[in-house]
Amino acid sequence: MCRVCTAVPVTGEPHVTIGADRGFTFDHVFDLPTPQATVYADCVHNLVEGIFDGFNATVLAYGQTGSGKTYSMGTGFETATVDEEVGIIPRALAHVFNGIDRRREEAKLEGRVEPVFDVSVQFIELYNEEIIDLLTEDRGASKGLRIHEDHKGEIYLQGATAAPVKNAHEIFYPLTPMWKKYAFIHVRWRNDFPLMNFKLLAKLK
Ligand SMILES: Nc1ncnc2c1ncn2[C@@H]1O[C@H](COP(=O)(O)OP(=O)(O)OP(=O)(O)O)[C@@H](O)[C@H]1O
After folding, report:
1. Residue 70 CA, ligand 1 centroid: distance in Å
2. Whose CA is closest to atom 3 on ligand 1?
3. How would CATH label the architecture of 32-204?
């Protein structure tokens, strides 16, 4: 028997229907040769800029095995990689800390009080429905870890270690192996906002 599995509208709208009734709308489709910088510019750049205006952002990679989640999110933090191949997480980290430096510099030049930022990271792995805190050696300490939503709709990780970090270097090197898992990066702009969350979620299968 022959039947239509995937259908796209002839009008060129960014929509695809899988099977009988599962419809998905999308903003962009990137082909294999698309440079990492283009993916970042089109999908992530504005999200990171937005955290400085008080918005929360989440980036997550989802897809079947071998579809390129690690390549897109994580390339460039473990070994020397050519600039063009650097993935979303290292680009976002550089962007966050450059953005902090720029805002502090601008304030100084304009004679304003310099903003103070606190940045911390949490790393967890979801394995067999269990949440594991990757920043503690004591696996037993991970028991009771929960992901919650508070009354303002903020998602937070209860009980997971939060490590303060001052620059991207501090995140890359000691925590390198963790990047393959999940990273919650909290950027807190003390002067203005109570808490901004920027979440980079990788490797969700
Ligand atoms: N855009 C791309 N350009 C070049 N190579 C790519 C690209 N995307 C993925 N690859 C390569 O394809 C292979 C599989 O990609 P990757 O490991 O990122 O998949 P994955 O979705 O993380 O897989 P898994 O879920 O099994 O961990 C890797 O060798 C990766 O380098």
Report:
1. 6
2. 32
3. 3-Layer(aba) Sandwich (3.40)
Rounded (10°) angle between helices 88-109 and 36-43: 60
Question: What ipTM was estimated for this complex?
Answer: 0.97
Atom 1 in ligand 1: which residue has the minimum CA distance?
32
DSSP string for residues in 133-168: ETT-S-GGGGTT-EEEE-TTS-EEEES---EEESSH
* pLDDT at site 43: 92
What's the maximum distance between 2 C-alpha atoms anywhere in the chain?
A: 73
Provide the residue ranges of all domains of the chain, joining segments of one domain with +: 32-204
Instruction: Compute, in angstroms, the gap from residue 184 CA to the centroid of ligand 1.
Output: 22
Helix H or strand E segment including 95: helix 88-109
Quick one: 48 exposed, middle or buried, by C-beta within 10 A (0-12, 13-18, 19+)?
buried
Rounded Cα distance between 102 and 37, Å, is: 21
Q: Is the model's pTM score more than 0.90?
A: no
Angle ∠(154,202,140) on CA atoms, nearest 5: 75
pLDDT for 64-109, tens place per residue? 888 888 788 876 665 657 788 888 888 888 898 999 899 889 989 9
